[in-house]
Specification:
With 113 residues, chain A is mostly beta strands. Chain A is 0% helix and 51% strand. In chain A, the strands form three sheets. In chain A, strands 2, 5, 6, 10, 11 and 12 form a six-stranded mixed beta sheet that branches. In chain A, strands 3-9-8-7 form a four-stranded antiparallel beta sheet, with no helix packed on it. Chain B is mostly beta strands and 114 residues long. In chain B, strands 2, 4, 5, 6, 9, 10 and 11 form a seven-stranded mixed beta sheet that branches. Chain B has a four-stranded antiparallel beta sheet with strand order 1-3-8-7, with no helix packed on it. The chains are: A mainly beta (113), B mainly beta (114). At the A-B interface, β6 and β11 of A face β4, β5, β9 and β10 of B.
């Protein structure tokens, strides 16, 4: 069975500092991995995905993620955090040939000025 | 290009009633899926439709149902509402055909059951 874990409920970081939001996964076969962000009272916005290719994936708003097969991780990173990055972040894995996304429990990112 | 449109955005119902939520996917997208978001259970997959056929179904009771029309618009219905059905219901669309691309989500319909 496929699953995703986000071990941190909340991550706090000062503006201008680098940020990391952790995600580990468990899948059989090749993983299709995604990061989404949710602002209050809004839907989910796509940030980036890993399907195949380079392990370092660049996405929207300066975010990037590193796929690590040996550690089954897909951590979200940003070199310099902004207060406006404060939101709820979800990691997800997608089953092949379906639109079924399995989400992690979400990590609330709080960036302090 | 218009995004995924969900209606209504907010609604309040009482226990025992039924509700229908609507989703219009991005133009050209043939796959629509539905998710329930609650503070306790997080994001849970409800079902997925492609070309008017249900392709996948999550672990929800039969009170939850859906359908897709020939223009790819989709509706989901919840009958005999319970307090625990209070949630944000999110619709997503994608190209659908064996693709591994991202899903595009609407703003959601927030259902409150009193």
């Amino acid at each position: 069975a496929q699953s995703v874990a986000q071990p941190e409920d909340q991550v706090n970081v000062a503006e201008g500092n680098p940020l990391t939001v952790k995600c580990t996964y468990s899948v059989s076969g090749n993983p299709y991995l995604f990061w989404y962000v949710q602002y209050p009272n809004r839907g989910l916005q796509f940030l980036l995905k890993y399907i195949t290719g380079d392990n370092l994936v660049k996405g929207s708003y300066g975010f990037e993620a590193e796929f690590n097969k040996s550690q089954t991780s897909f951590h979200l990173k940003k070199p310099s955090a902004l207060v406006s990055d404060s939101a709820l972040y979800f990691c997800a894995v997608r089953a092949y040939n379906t639109d079924k996304l399995i989400f992690g429990t979400g990590t609330r990112l709080q960036v302090f000025p | 290009k218009a995004g995924v449109t969900q209606t209504p955005r907010y609604l309040i119902k009482t226990r025992g009633q039924q509700v229908t939520l609507s989703c219009s996917p991005i133009s050209g997208h043939r796959s629509v899926s539905w998710y329930q978001q609650t503070p306790g259970q997080g994001l849970q997959f409800l079902f997925e439709y492609f070309s008017e056929t249900q392709r996948n179904k999550g672990n929800f009771p039969g009170r939850f149902s859906g359908r897709q029309f020939s223009n790819s618009r989709s509706e989901m219905n919840v009958s005999t509402l319970e307090l625990g059905d209070s949630a944000l219901y999110l619709c997503a669309s994608s190209g659908g055909t064996a693709n591994t691309g991202e899903l595009f989500f609407g703003e959601g319909s927030r259902l409150t059951v009193l």
